[in-house]
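hey all, quick one before standup. I had two proteins in the batch that finished overnight and I want to keep them in one place so we stop losing track of which output belongs to which input. First protein below, input sequence then structure tokens straight from the run.
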Amino acid sequence: MGEADCLLAVGDDELIKIHFHTNEPWKVLEYCSTLGEIHDIVIEDMDRQARGLQG
């Protein structure tokens, strides 16, 4: 799925919520789409936020 420095996954048999830090979010979405439906996607550019720009 690409390199990451943080992964948090919480859920049960029906629903899983993940929080993932990566420079390649499309790889995470591609992999997750093979496992089931994806809802409520939020992708933020932390480099932009660190520079004071909108994420």
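OK second protein, same deal, sequence then tokens:
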Amino acid sequence: MKIMRKYGKVLGMSAAALAMTAALTIESSMAYFTTYVSAGGSEVIRLGTQTEIHENIENMIKHITIENVSDNDCFVRVKVLYGDTFLKVDIKDANGSGNWYDGGDGFWYYKPVLKAHQLTSVLDAKILVPEDFDKDNFNVIVFHECIPVVYDDNGNPDWNLSWNVTGEGGK
């Protein structure tokens, strides 16, 4: 009992100091063992490209334009699919602008960069059918693809690099 009286205060003070030290370090220890962090605010990040096709048909000619509805620049290509038993489709750059060209692989490529929220020039698909053919009973399907633009080391858009990065062939 004498020992408790003699060292009681010292032991009590030591225990209190130890408890205070533990209380001060518990928050930093919890931060060390935490695997996530909370953040406030928000910012929308759009990493892809998206396009919409616009088709207008007059006198058996499909006038095709592609609109870039994303916030990123992209390259575009188009393929026209049809049954070749009775149909023939002639495809050409409507304005003669030189922006569309036949890639020789079934696709028509729009060579300039299609800027965000812009439209391509018109690509015409003239549908040729025999005189006695039912002009209301066939499909000509326009398929289009877009990819984000990849820029080279000098900041120039690189058509080939863009298609190759995505695993596709390109012109």
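Flagging for whoever picks this up: The helical segments are 2-33, 159-165. The longest strand covers residues 74-82.
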